[in-house]
C-alpha cells in the first residue's frame, strides 16, 4: 500500500515522534511511505520526506488557496509513487495553523481515502487558532469534512466522545493510541554535571504555557536541597518566549534550585531520560499524553499532575498512575478571591469573544467553582501573575512553605515501575501500532467513496467551550 503522511513540519516534538513511529512501523510491514512537510527535517530520518512549502504555519494576514495546495500535494506524491497514494494520512488538519488544509483535505478525498488524525483541537484552549480559521475558511462549517472515504482517528476517549456527539459515524471513527519506544542509549547521572550529585527530576517538555511551568517552579521551591528539578527545552515559538523567560528570571532572582533548558545544547533525549532519577509533568492539557507512558519505558518513576481526561485509557490497560495528583491546591486568600474572580471574568469574556460565542449564564461562577473548593484553589487554574504571587510567598515565608509540604505524592515503588514498563510495552508497541494503522487503512479502502458533507462545527465547539473546563493558562 502507498501511504502519504502529511504534517505542517517535522521539528522535534510529539507529533513528529508519532509520524516517525507510524512510518517505521508501516515500512516494517511492507508499505511504501512518503511524508510531506513544509520544510526539510533538521535531522536524518529513515523514510522519504518531500517539501510542500504551502503546508507551513500561516500568518493571520496570509491566505493559501486550498485547491492549489491539494494540487501540489498530489503532484509531489505522484512523483514519488507514480500514482496517487492509496491513503492520505493528515495530522491535525483542524488545529488552525493553516486554514487551507481542511478544504484541501476534502478535495483530496474526491479521488482517494483520507485519514484525519487529530492530536489537538483549536476549540480546546486555542482561541487564536480558531479565530484564524473563522477569518480564513470560506465557511467554518467546512472544518470537519465527512464522507465514506474520510475517516478520523483520535488519541483518547474524550475526543472520541466529542466526534460521536457531532454524529460522526462509528464506522469512520477510530481510537488510535500512539506508540511509544525507547532510543538506545548508555547514560548515567555523570552525563548531567548540572545535577552536581543531586537527585535529578526531569521535565521533558517545551516550556509553553499549557505545560504549567509556574507549577514546575513551585515544586522546585518545595523540593529538598538534595534535589534538582530541570526542564529540557524552551518554546520554539518566539511569541511564547517572554512568559518562559520571566520564569527563568524569577527562579534566578529567588535562587530556586531549578535548571531550565537542559536539552538545548543538543543532548540526546534518551540520554537525559536515562540520567534522571524521576520524571515529572505539571501540564494542564495534553492530546495523547506521551508524558504518562514514556517514563516507564526508561524504567523511571513519574510524579506530578494527572490529567484524567487523557489518562483514563492508560489506567484501563493497567498502567498505575495512582501517585499523581489531580489538583495542587493552595489557599485562595494567598491571591485573593476578589482578584481571582476579576481575572477570571476578564479572561472569560475575551476567550468567548475570540471564539465568536456569547458568554453563558453564570460563566464566572461556574469557572470559579471548578477551580476552588473549600477556600483552596488549584494552582494550575491560576495565571502566571497569580502563580508568581504564590511562589514568592512560599520562598519567603516558611509557614507558607510548610503548609504545602506533602501535597506532592512520592513516586511508585520499583516493583510498580517495572510492572508499568511491561504494560506499556505490551499495549503501546510499534508493532501493535503498525497493525492498527493497517487495519484502519484497509477498512477505509473497503468502504469505498461517496459524496462529501461536513460535521456540525458548532456542536464540536460547544463540547469544548464550557466554563467548567476553562483554564487561564490556555487563553
C-alpha termini separation = 42 Å
Low-confidence stretches: 186-190
The percent range for strand residues is: 5-15%
Tell me the number of helical segments per DSSP (H or I, 4 or more residues long).
Answer: 17
What structural category arises from helix and sheet content? Answer: alpha/beta
Q: In one word, what is the shape?
A: globular
Strand order, biggest sheet?
Answer: 3-2-1-4-5-7-8
Helix content percent band = 25-40%
Largest sheet properties: 7 strands, parallel
Mean pLDDT figure: 95
Radius of gyration: 23 Å
EC number: 2.4.-.-
Protein name: Glycosyltransferase family 4 protein
Domain Glycosyltransferase subfamily 4-like N-terminal: 13-129
InterPro entries: Glyco_trans_4-like_N
Q: What are the main properties of this structure?
A:
alpha/beta, 17 strands, 5-stranded parallel sheet
Amino acid at each position: 500500500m502507498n501511504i502519504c503522511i502529511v504534517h505542517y513540519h517535522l521539528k522535534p516534538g510529539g507529533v513528529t515522534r508519532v509520524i516517525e513511529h507510524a512510518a517505521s512501523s508501516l515500512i516494517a510491514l511492507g508499505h511504501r511511505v512518503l511524508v510531506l512537510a513544509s520544510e526539510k527535517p533538521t535531522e536524518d530520518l529513515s523514510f522519504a520526506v518531500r517539501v510542500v512549502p504551502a503546508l507551513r504555519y500561516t500568518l493571520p494576514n496570509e491566505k493559501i488557496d486550498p485547491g492549489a495546495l491539494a494540487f501540489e500535494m498530489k503532484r509531489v506524491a505522484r512523483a514519488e509513487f507514480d500514482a496517487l497514494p492509496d491513503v492520505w494520512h493528515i495530522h491535525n488538519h483542524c488545529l488552525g495553523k493553516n486554514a487551507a488544509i481542511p478544504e484541501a483535505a476534502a478535495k483530496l478525498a474526491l479521488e482517494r481515502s483520507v485519514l484525519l488524525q487529530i492530536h489537538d483541537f483549536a476549540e480546546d484552549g486555542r482561541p487564536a487558532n480558531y479565530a484564524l480559521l473563522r477569518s480564513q475558511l470560506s465557511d467554518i462549517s467546512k472544518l470537519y469534512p465527512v464522507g465514506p472515504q474520510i475517516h478520523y482517528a483520535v488519541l483518547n476517549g474524550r475526543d472520541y466522545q466529542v466526534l460521536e456527539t457531532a454524529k460522526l459515524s462509528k464506522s469512520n471513527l477510530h481510537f488510535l493510541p500512539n506508540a511509544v519506544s525507547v532510543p538506545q542509549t548508555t547514560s548515567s547521572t555523570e552525563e548531567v554535571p548540572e545535577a552536581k550529585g543531586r537527585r535529578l527530576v526531569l521535565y521533558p517538555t517545551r516550556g509553553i504555557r499549557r505545560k504549567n511551568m509556574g507549577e514546575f517552579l513551585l515544586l522546585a521551591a518545595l523540593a529538598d536541597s538534595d534535589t534538582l528539578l530541570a526542564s529540557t527545552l524552551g518554546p520554539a515559538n518566539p511569541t511564547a518566549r517572554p512568559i518562559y523567560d520571566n520564569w527563568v528570571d524569577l527562579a534566578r532572582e529567588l535562587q530556586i534550585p531549578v535548571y531550565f533548558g537542559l536539552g538545548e545544547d543538543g543532548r540526546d533525549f534518551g540520554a537525559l531520560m536515562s540520567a534522571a532519577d524521576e520524571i515529572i509533568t505539571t501540564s494542564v492539557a495534553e492530546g495523547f499524553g506521551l508524558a504518562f507512558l514514556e517514563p516507564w519505558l526508561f524504567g523511571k518513576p513519574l510524579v506530578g499532575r494527572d490529567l484524567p481526561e487523557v489518562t483514563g485509557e492508560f489506567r484501563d490497560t493497567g498502567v498505575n498512575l495512582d501517585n499523581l495528583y489531580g489538583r495542587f491546591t493552595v489557599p485562595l486568600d494567598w491571591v485573593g478571591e476578589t482578584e481571582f474572580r476579576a481575572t477570571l471574568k476578564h479572561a472569560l469574556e475575551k476567550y468567548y469573544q475570540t471564539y465568536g460565542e456569547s458568554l453563558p449564564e453564570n460563566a464566572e461562577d461556574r469557572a470559579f467553582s471548578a477551580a476552588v473548593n473549600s477556600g483552596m484553589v488549584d494552582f494550575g487554574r491560576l495565571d502566571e501573575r497569580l502563580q508568581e504571587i504564590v511562589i514568592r510567598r512560599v520562598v519567603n515565608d516558611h509557614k507558607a512553605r510548610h503548609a504545602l509540604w506533602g501535597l506532592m505524592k512520592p513516586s511508585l515503588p520499583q516493583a510498580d515501575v517495572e510492572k508499568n514498563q511491561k504494560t506499556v510495552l505490551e499495549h503501546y508497541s510499534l508493532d501493535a501500532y503498525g497493525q492498527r494503522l493497517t487495519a484502519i487503512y484497509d477498512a477505509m479502502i473497503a468502504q469505498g467513496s461517496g459524496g462529501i458533507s461536513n460535521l456540525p462545527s458548532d456542536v464540536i465547539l460547544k463540547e469544548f467551550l464550557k466554563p467548567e473546563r476553562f483554564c487561564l493558562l490556555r487563553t
